[in-house]
Write a structure and sequence with these properties.
Layout (H helix, E strand, L loop, with lengths): L1 E7 L2 E6 L11 E9 L4 H5 L9 E2 L4 E8 L11 E4 L9 H4 L19 E4 L2 H4 E3 L9 H6 L3 H12 L6 E5 L3 H12 L4 E5 L3 H9 L4 E3 L3 H10 L6 E6 L4 H10 E9 L9 H6 L3 E4 L4 H13 L11 E4 L3 H9 L6 E4 L1
Parallel strand pairs: 9-10, 9-12, 10-11, 12-13, 13-14, 15-16
Antiparallel strand pairs: 1-2, 1-4, 3-5, 3-7, 3-16, 5-6, 6-8
């Protein structure tokens, strides 16, 4: 088979790789229908995170089950499935608490930007659709592998609800999905912070009530002006840089909560949290916990998070898929084998 391999910063190649096989009786092999490039993949592409050797890359996928191990019971060959960016067994003490991203027996994949992938812990990871979905639903189903569930995790972690004001820091796919999540969870005021027209329009499509284009102190002042002068109840930080976390801290009110889902780089001032009574919660999304509810919302066409994909390419053009996102020519790139 063929898949994406990152060799060095700025160097992602479409290469022949070994076909995945069933290794453990709890495994499944999934033939990929769609995969995509994640903003967190760009940390390695940009050289922020090291690339020490050529490595298969990618962690978002949906597809059709091609084979299963002898212990797999929840999915069958031929099912259309989606799974989270981390696999989980669904039975350990952490999973029983809903903390699937921290599964005691979980982990990542050997590169999901590929024609086929091996999914460990298939029973605890994969969710099947009732039937083969319409092709126009596949982008939205694919978002449930990461960005939609991550945006949802930011909102849930920050306590978003019908009586809350929300500000979203970050206008990438996760930030835009966080806007959609906040709206779906009933927030009457949802402020999207974005300087890019196409992303501003999509945030509005997803239900943002206000757009703030300013950053730093001007951006903080603009959010405060929309929230009785004190800041938002809930701020969803969906970037991961130190600057974004400072922006989030400036936009949250005293006693408010920051939902932190951006892959972290740099520091965060705990003294500022303490003196302002600001709470912080988040981390990698518990995708498997959210999948049933969000998949139902997608299949019923209640939400359409697949709109974050504004570029689709064949998997063979994976290098361009990365370059387009790196150069901000695309919000998020979908690739099909």
């Amino acid at each position: 088979m063929y898949g994406a391999v990152i060799h060095a910063p700025g160097d992602v190649r479409y290469e022949e790789r070994d076909d995945p096989t069933i290794v453990e009786p709890t495994d499944a092999v999934v033939r990929t229908v769609a995969a995509c490039v994640c903003g967190s993949d760009l940390w390695r592409y940009r050289g922020v995170a090291p690339v020490v050797k050529p490595t298969p890359i990618g962690h978002e996928y949906c597809g059709i089950v091609e084979s299963i191990g002898t212990a797999v019971t929840s999915v069958k060959v031929g099912d259309f499935v989606v799974g989270g960016f981390l696999h989980s067994d669904g039975t350990c003490a952490a999973c029983r608490k809903g903390a699937h991203a921290n599964c005691l027996h979980g982990g990542g994949y050997a590169g999901c930007q590929a024609e086929k992938i091996r999914v460990p812990n298939a029973d605890g990871t994969l969710v099947a659709t009732p039937e083969m979905p319409a092709d126009d639903l596949i982008p939205s189903i694919l978002t449930l592998s990461d960005v939609m569930c991550t945006g949802w995790h930011a909102a849930v972690s920050a306590g978003v609800g019908p009586d809350t004001t929300v500000a979203v820091v970050g206008d990438g796919a996760v930030g835009l999905c966080a806007v959609l999540a906040a709206v779906q969870l009933g927030a009457p005021v949802v402020i999207a912070m974005s300087r890019h027209e196409a992303r501003q329009k999509l945030a509005a499509t997803f239900g943002a009530t206000h757009i703030v284009a300013e950053r730093d102190e001007a951006g903080i002042a603009a959010v405060q002006a929309l929230t009785d002068g004190i800041g938002a109840d809930c701020v969803l930080e969906c970037v991961g840089t130190e600057e974004a976390r400072w922006q989030a801290l400036g936009c949250v009110r005293v006693g408010g909560t920051v939902g932190l889902v951006g892959l972290p780089h740099g520091d965060f001032p705990t003294d500022q949290l303490f003196w302002r009574n600001v709470g912080i919660k988040g981390g990698p999304a518990h995708v498997r916990a959210y999948l049933p509810e969000l998949l139902e919302l997608v299949l019923s066409r209640t939400i359409n998070p697949g709109l974050v994909f504004d570029l689709e390419l064949p998997l063979s053009e994976i290098g361009e898929a990365y370059a387009a996102m790196d150069e901000r020519r695309a919000i998020k790139t979908l690739v099909r084998p």
